[in-house]
Design a protein that fits this description.
alpha/beta; 7-stranded mixed sheet; 6-stranded mixed sheet; about 35% helix; globular; binds flavin-adenine dinucleotide
Length: about 400
């Protein structure tokens, strides 16, 4: 399809870069615009489960990403105080064997850099940094964008991969706004030196809050995310620093191994958690939404980036099937993706409920049941998510 007008992508986050790569691999010319001149991701970790790894494989970057990854053996659901492991959900060999791809823990910056470098190296992709899309234009059957330097460009199609505050979304789906979840996330990355951590994720489940930590950067660092129910703070910048003492206070007395990690935190960042429900329409004519621009979900199932990667692969596949009928391709993409992303967002909320139980009685019943189920059938908790992890966007 070279020689045809390019597909124009607004946004160079994980979703936009993945879309550019998927489209170029399907034969399209692509022009991607990222508003930040130096788009690096903030210091934080990212879990990429088997379904996300398969999407990275379809984009041709699985091996490059794996160089920077840690491969967790399990995720342990634990209780503060006793430290008891309520359930050990197998990941490593289990994901590779059952779902055909590994579960990876990555530094966000590493994954972003791998995608950006792959896009910049691809002959059919032109990446322009420091340039925002300010408007999507329509003329007859055509579509184009206006950039923040006033220049205009026509394309075959426009992809809105411009994140939770997407401007492209309004033109597709009308006006709406992200919704505050009532929760705030603390984030920090600490050195792993001397900790001899087994590569696994730990989820500590407290009343109205939970804490997750896992190794990243091939085991050299540990990523910490603490989620707390509170509504007195609504900032949304990855770079908004808080104080280590505040972070520690939110999880004080949870467990000696938690204390050790929290004492290593030099600068924690905090981020109010918003979500954006998917709109009833994902596309309008030659314009389609993807990733957080379409369905920003809370991070309690660690799937937002995985969904953006899957979106990218499916969208490119559908466009390649009917390149002469872009609206039809986009409708097929939306039909493929709508239910799955809804189900994933719902499952993420179910995790928030499970991780934050307030009532003592409920905690005893739910965690007791989980513990028993894990003892009787250790892989059952993992198999409950077969529907999520066995999905392969390249086969969809
Ligand atoms: C605390 C936390 C933990 C998380 N952990 C996980 C996890 O473990 N696993 C997982 O899969 N997901 C996780 N997520 C979700 C994941 O981070 C997001 O779903 C993912 O980054 C979305 O990617 P995106 O490309 O759609 O959007 P974004 O990453 O927001 O990228 C959008 C890009 O568009 C650019 N942009 C915006 N407007 C314009 C414009 N007008 N013109 C040009 N460029 C523009 C922005 O600068 C940005 O670079 C987590 C989220 C949070 C908050």
């Amino acid at each position: 399809m070279s020689g045809t007008a390019p597909v124009l992508v607004a946004g160079g986050g994980i979703g936009g870069l993945a879309a550019a790569l998927a489209l170029a691999r399907a034969g399209f010319e692509v022009r991607l615009f990222e508003q930040k001149p130096d788009p690096h991701e903030w210091g934080a970790g990212l879990q990429i489960s088997a379904n996300g790894t398969k999407a990275l494989r379809a984009l041709g970057v699985e091996d490059q990403a794996a160089i920077h990854a840690s491969f967790p053996e399990s995720v342990d659901l634990r209780l503060p105080g006793s430290g008891r492991v309520v359930s050990r959900v197998p990941l490593g060999g289990f994901h590779a064997g059952r779902y055909g791809a590994r579960y990876m823990h990555l530094h966000r910056a590493d994954l972003h850099r791998v995608l950006l470098e792959a896009a910049q190296a691809h002959p059919q992709i032109a990446v322009t940094l420091g340039r925002a899309v300010t408007e999507v234009t329509h003329s007859g059957d055509g579509v184009g964008v206006v950039l923040d330097d006033g220049s205009a460009l026509d394309g075959l199609a426009v992809i809105g991969a411009d994140g939770i505050r997407s401007g492209v979304r309004e033109g597709v789906a009308g006006e709406d706004a992200p919704r505050f979840t009532g929760m705030v996330a603390w984030r920090a990355v600490v050195p792993a030196d001397g900790l001899a951590e087994v590569p696994r994720a730990h989820v500590w489940m407290g009343r109205g809050r939970h804490l997750v930590h896992y190794p990243i950067s091939a085991g050299r660092q540990i990523n910490l995310v603490g989620v707390v129910e509170r509504s007195d703070w609504r900032g949304e910048s990855w770079s908004e620093a808080g104080s280590p003492a505040e972070f520690q206070a939110d999880f004080a007395g949870w467990h000696p191994s938690v204390d050790i990690l929290l004492r290593r935190v030099a600068t924690p960042y905090r981020w109010a958690l918003y979500e954006r429900h998917q709109p009833s329409v994902w596309c309008a004519g030659r314009v389609a939404l993807l990733g957080d621009a379409c369905h920003a979900m809370p991070p309690f199932l660690a799937q937002g980036a995985c969904m953006a990667l899957e979106d990218a692969v499916v969208l490119a596949h559908r466009l390649a099937q009917t390149p002469d009928d872009v609206p039809k391709a986009f409708r097929a993409y939306a039909d493929d993706r709508r239910k799955r992303t809804e189900d994933v967002a719902r499952a993420a909320w179910a995790n928030a409920w499970r991780f934050h139980l307030h009532s003592g009685l409920l905690r005893t019943c739910v965690y007791g049941g989980l513990s028993l189920a894990s003892m009787l059938a250790p892989t059952r908790p993992a198999r409950l998510f077969d529907w999520l992890y066995e999905y392969d966007a390249a086969q969809a």
